[in-house]
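Methods: example folding runs. The two proteins below were folded one after another, and each record is reproduced exactly as written to the output file, sequence line first and structure-token line second.
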Amino acid sequence: MHACNNVTLLFKLYCLAVMTLMAAAYTVALRYTRTSDKELYFSTTAVCITEVIKLLLSVGILAKETGSLGRFKASLRENVLGSPKELLKLSVPSLVYAVQNNMAFLALSNLDAAVYQVTYQLKIPCTALCTVLMLNRTLSKLQWVSVFMLCAGVTLVQWKPAQATKVVVEQNPLLGFGAIAIAVLCSGFAGVYFEKVLKSSDTSLWVRNIQMYLSGIIVTLVGVYLSDGAEIKEKGFFYGYTYYVWFVIFLASVGGLYTSVVVKYTDNIMKGFSAAAAIVLSTIASVMLFGLQITLTFALGTLLVCVSIYLYGLPRQDTTSIQQGETASKERVIGV
């Protein structure tokens, strides 16, 4: 039993480690493409292409999983083409994530950067709360402490002192806080909702991915048209694309698939811890590659992130069974 638990723990740690490294590599590569001297590409088209590649990869993996062309076609016919309710169910995360991204942009436009950085990290405890409410799980007091410690650590790692500017920007703090609250709730709900759908049935993970990415492509195409439609008509869909941009898209695609595996076999809270570790790693890589300066707040934030990951991963003791054992031993002593 203990050996089985150890294997499961090692598998989860392996999944999280790979996800962390991939997320860090993606962040560094993305930073390079956005700071190089090349013409900037349209990020909305890159997101759309990423969804298409994730869909194609999921279809390929499902074909290999089914083992034959006949079973593959039957699976697509039954779970995709013949299941409009399931497609609608998996469109929820895509729509909610779209709302989240727009609300985050609205909040950033109406709040100071420092306030935005702090409040947006509330998505971490919000995800934990959604996990408790939607999946009927319990977290120990130590795990709750580690969640809020992670929230503080990520805030410090990403902290950038406010800089004075002569440009006066009209902001609506009330609108900003309302938008950030919606973004935080959307982040927690969408992730846990997808986890619940994955774990509430025996449907293949890759079928679920196909269902979600189909709706994701539609949502991102709408975003492309609304955000950059006029410029894309003028310059072209693939304007500014280089080998580095395609590499970033590849990392985002594979990372997205791997994230679904992590959610399937661990949970969204652990995914949040992995994302925090990726932020730390990508920042350290930026120090070596881009000359970024390490600050005291970054060092303190990194320490908090590491400690919180350790605390959350500690095994939870069943105090009830310990107490029962102690009671039984006391009764034997009294009997003697």
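Second run, written to the same file directly after the first:
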Amino acid sequence: MDKVMRMSSEKGVVIFTKSSCCLCYAVQILFRDLRVQPTIHEIDNDPDCREIEKALLRIGCSTAVPAVFVGGKLVGSTNEVMSLHLSGSLVPLIKPYQSLLY
């Protein structure tokens, strides 16, 4: 769990994904469309993949991936991110991490 907490705090927006996950890809595209360049951790390429998945679920993710962290705090998975976006609450949350040049 320490590894996940450390990795989730390295940058403003961090997404834990798997390379074969289509929902992970959709969440990544959403953030890029919102001018945020998230740090992506493809956990299926990490030797500690199983432990990372378990830690993400223990932290409170409804599914292990995608797991989105903003400012070191868990936002959630696809459902939570899309709900925030549709309600207009996602942009204010990520505003400090948006790029003007992106």
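Comment on the second run: The longest strand covers residues 13-17.
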